[in-house]
Automatic annotation (TrEMBL):
Keywords: Antiport, Cell membrane, Ion transport, Membrane, Sodium, Sodium transport, Transmembrane, Transmembrane helix, Transport
Protein name, per record: Sodium:proton antiporter
Gene3D superfamilies reported in the protein's UniProt record: 6.10.140.1330
Principal cellular location given in the protein's record: membrane
Membrane-protein topology: Multi-pass membrane protein
Annotated Cation/H+ exchanger transmembrane domain residues: 11-407
Subcellular localization(s) per the UniProt record: Cell membrane
Family annotation (Pfam families): Na_H_Exchanger
Length: 417
């Protein structure tokens, strides 16, 4: 595994260098596209008589196991780092819109995409049961706007918009995983045994979500107590790292949502970071987590780019992918617009906010890792292929064309941050 990770890290560094030197795209977008192009090159070389290269690359990626790499590996670090970088007090002021988008929008999107996917799969001749289609809706609904946030920072957007998009993404990652696990329990998948009742699904959702939120607050409080008496930045970094890794493992053992726990713990530390850290140590601690966050995100998106084209596909799967790209966009717009109507006037968001949230709703590692984590069945390859297609479209097309919409949103939204 160490050798496989070393190969991935070296390839990622090369792709990031080529993007920075020649392409000048936002880093995560450019690395993903470069990874996809590298995969195409491997396929072409394999077809031209250099066998073994494609199999070797696939073997490296399989050794790392994308699902374990993301869900049980770097996700805890990414979510904590993202939460720590935010203005927790600003998020508290925008809590209604963030929580509505994270919970209600994700539920609406899951239902819309799930039922539509069931129809699309049937239309193209792929036999996918309704419960599996709903699982697809749950895994593809969470957004992963890492690349868009990079653009938002470059454009100097109002704090309100940046906080809204980042806050929604952090929470709906956790909510999406909880919904997926609840549906998996209803289908008798994912280690939940036999199918459970609707009440059981609701109970599982409550246990995962509410338990994760409460445990995250407890972790954040523990971190506050420990960090308050420490002034050495090395110890502060070690404590926060142990809080994240140990807390995530403990959440998994308790059967509650680790992603939500990491978000809440990060926000608690963020809210008190000016009290907990001196100006010098705060810069060092935040610099450490920012660097870790950026490096792991680049590695993750390189992984996506390399992995996305090494999966065998059929014509029916490609047709379903094209149709479901449109479905995912429409569902994203509806699921944002409906709950947003309840808070938009009260919280003073600009006219382009819904459009920015829709087009900026990139999908990424969470979706792919959940799809790859599905058990073997006749339906798994259909869901994996469509998930890859949607993720690649959102990163390559939406990620590269969102800047004009960002500028309009900036002009239409007052900065109250």
């Amino acid at each position: 595994m160490l050798s496989a990770f070393a190969v991935l890290l070296c390839v990622t560094a090369l792709l990031a260098y080529l993007n920075d030197r020649f392409l000048h795209f936002p880093t995560t977008v450019g690395v993903t596209l470069a990874g996809a192009l590298a995969s195409i090159l491997l396929i072409v070389l394999d077809a031209l008589g250099l066998p073994g290269l494609r199999g070797w690359a696939a073997g490296v990626l399989e050794t790392l196991d994308f699902t374990e790499f993301v869900l049980n590996g770097i996700l805890s670090v990414l979510l904590f780092a993202g939460a720590l970088s935010l203005n927790a007090r600003q998020m508290l002021r925008q809590r209604r819109s963030i929580l509505l988008l994270a919970f209600l929008s994700t539920l609406i999107s899951t239902a819309l995409i799930g039922f539509a996917a069931y129809g699309v799969f049937a239309l193209v001749g792929l036999d996918v049961p309704l419960m599996w289609a709903l699982l697809f809706g749950a895994l593809i609904s969470p957004t992963d706007p890492v690349a868009v946030l990079d653009l938002l920072k470059r454009a100097r957007v109002p704090v309100k918009i940046e906080t809204l998009i980042a806050g929604e993404s952090l929470f709906n990652d956790g909510v999406g995983v909880v919904i997926f696990l609840a549906l998996a329990g209803a289908a008798g998948l994912g280690g939940h045994g036999a199918e459970v009742s609707a009440a059981g699904v609701a109970g599982l959702f409550a246990q995962e979500a509410l338990g994760g939120l409460a445990f995250g607050a407890l972790l954040g409080g523990l971190g506050f107590v420990l960090l308050r008496g420490v002034k050495e930045h090395t110890v502060e970094i070690l404590l926060t790292l142990a809080l994240v890794v140990g807390g995530y493992v403990a959440a998994a053992a308790l059967g509650i949502s680790g992603p939500l726990a990491m978000v809440v713990a990060g926000l608690v530390i963020s809210a008190y970071k000016h009290t907990l850290f001196t100006p010098d140590t705060q810069e060092l601690v935040e610099g450490f987590w920012e660097t870790i966050d950026q490096v792991l995100n680049i590695v993750l998106f390189a992984f996506i780019g390399l992995d996305v084209l090494l999966t065998e596909t059929t014509g029916a799967q490609i047709l379903a992918s094209v149709l479901l790209i449109g479905v995912a966009l429409a569902a994203r717009w509806i699921s944002v617009a409906l709950p947003f109507a309840l808070v938009r006037a009260r919280e003073g968001y600009g006219a382009y906010t819904v459009r920015l949230l829709t087009w900026g709703g990139l999908r990424g590692g969470i979706a792919i890792s959940l799809a790859l984590g599905l058990p073997d069945s006749p339906y798994r390859t259909h869901l994996v292929t469509v998930t890859y297609a949607i993720v690649l479209f959102t990163i390559a097309v939406q990620g590269l064309t969102i800047m004009p919409l960002v500028r309009r949103a900036v002009d239409a939204t007052p900065d109250e941050g």
